[in-house]
Amino acid sequence: MRFQVFLLAFFLGFLPACKQSAVIAPSGTQPAANTLHTPDWAKNAVIYEVNIRQFSKEGTFNACTKELPRIRDLGVDVLWLMPIYPLATTNRKCHDNATTECFGSHYAAIDFEAVNPRYGTMDDFNRLVSEAHRLNMKVILDFVPNHTGWDAKWMKEHPDWYEKGPDGKITDPINSDGTKWGWTDVAQLDFDNPQLREAWMRAHEFWLKNTAIDGFREDVAGAVPTSYWLELRPRLDKIRPVFMLSENEDKGREHFAACFEMNYGWGLHHTIKDVAKGAKPASAIYEHTEKVKSDFGTRGWQMNFTQNHDENSWNGTERELFGAGADCFTALCFTIEGTGLIYNGQEANLDKRLLFFNKDEIDWSGKSRAAFFRTLTDLKHRNRALWNGRHGGPLQKIPTSDDAHVYAFYREKKGDKALCLFNLSGQPVSVSWTSPLLNGQWHDVFAPGQPLVTVKSGETRQLRGYGWLILSNR
């Protein structure tokens, strides 16, 4: 989905679906929660997003499969594949003045039980999944339940499954007040139609029955009725346990209760961008994370990121958004509560906005950040304090003498401890931090093999601009 619209939606409490009443159970109360069993492997997993189209010159499953050992070496546990389905040509969007081939949006799919022939065959896809599993990685597919492309199989066979505008014709996505999202390349589905809901559930089941995938990332999940997610999850888990990622934040509590393990940390992302620009103090991060815990409860957790396909294509690269602080803010995303995301190309210091609609291959020749990511993922795997959701330790803010620029916190779980200090400004700081939790000797995660670091509450530390100190007791 295009990020500009989503950003507006975030600040408006998300764009409501055309039939907003469908989000509420018929009785007018929120649907009851499911009994969900999160797969055990998710407790300390790190996720990596793959854009098959841009990942290689070939833009195929087979080209991606060849790179899986390298991705695994980063410490990646979960591959999230952007949509792999055949795409619409009707109303297809392309980038003006682009000299490369136009594919259209990844999210304008026409058949959710097939693979895009440009990417390869179903056998090629299954080999990718098999190799990922051999390397002890999981695979989740990107699904697009809110809409389809205009020449979709469903539109031809079941036009009654789509929303209609005031003129009685199938419409692109609109709000309850009739205003449009601007996504003219896709048509809005009608989740008040029970046949559509059943078809979507069967499409999910198709992939679990015919491939060995491990779960789904659901696009625009907040615009789909929560009652649908409540119906879907038990059907999937009857086939095998799945992992579910919601591209939504504002419905976190009900989504976590109904279907999902993880959602998007959009609020954190916007907050750290503001901190990077100097528009907010570092203390705003703690205010946000406390609100998240209050709003969502403890069942699920968030995906934290400095880049994903929307941010990169529409708003800027890491360097554009975070400048010289890119590594610092990325390290924060991997140590704060939640799961860190690596967007394909970040490990090669990706420094261009990949075209969203046209072919635009990742430049893999940039300076390698593999060791940087490997350090963070290794810490995530071995230190239980940094595990995901309820499996990890709660974040406790450490007061400092400069909370406007410095963010410090402590996490502990079952004897594992982590202590983190981030200078989120570009200027050197001399900062003192105060808490009895600090006292002791620690391993400096980014200085392996060096003598232990002795820390005392009340001491003063020097940090370079965008410098950090990540300490572990093991």
Q: Remind me, CATH topology of the largest domain?
A: TIM Barrel
Tally of DSSP helical segments:
15
Mean pLDDT: 93
Q: Architecture of the largest domain, according to CATH?
A: Alpha-Beta Barrel
Are there runs of 5+ residues with pLDDT below 50, and where? Answer: 1-29
The largest β sheet comes out as: 8 strands, parallel, barrel
Our estimate of the beta-strand percent is 15-25%
Structurally, the number of domains stands at 2
Strand order of the largest sheet: 1-2-3-6-7-8-9-10
Give Rg in angstroms.
Answer: 22 Å
Number of strands: 18
Indicate the overall shape: globular
CATH superfamily of the largest domain: Glycosidases
Structure class: alpha/beta
Measure the end-to-end span.
41 Å
| CATH class membership of the largest domain | Alpha Beta
Fraction of residues in H or I helices: 25-40%
Structure, explained:
- This protein is an alpha/beta fold and 474 residues long.
- The protein has 2 domains: 3-393, TIM Barrel (Alpha-Beta Barrel); 397-472, Sandwich (Immunoglobulin-like).
- It has helices spanning 3-11, 52-55, 61-66, 68-73, 122-134, 153-157, 194-210, 226-239, 252-258, 266-277, 283-296, 309-315, 318-322, 326-335, 370-382, and strands at residues 47-50, 78-81, 138-143, 147-149, 186-188, 215-218, 243-246, 262-264, 301-304, 339-343, 396-397, 406-413, 416-423, 429-432, 440-444, 453-455, 460-463, 468-472.
- The strands form 4 sheets. It has an 8-stranded parallel barrel with strand order 1-2-3-6-7-8-9-10, surrounded by 4 helices. A 6-stranded antiparallel sheet has the order 11-12-13-18-15-16. Strands 4-5 form a two-stranded antiparallel sheet.
- Strand 7, helix 9 (252-258) and strand 8 form a beta-alpha-beta unit.
- The protein starts with a helix and ends with a strand.
- Residues 1-29 have low confidence and may be disordered.
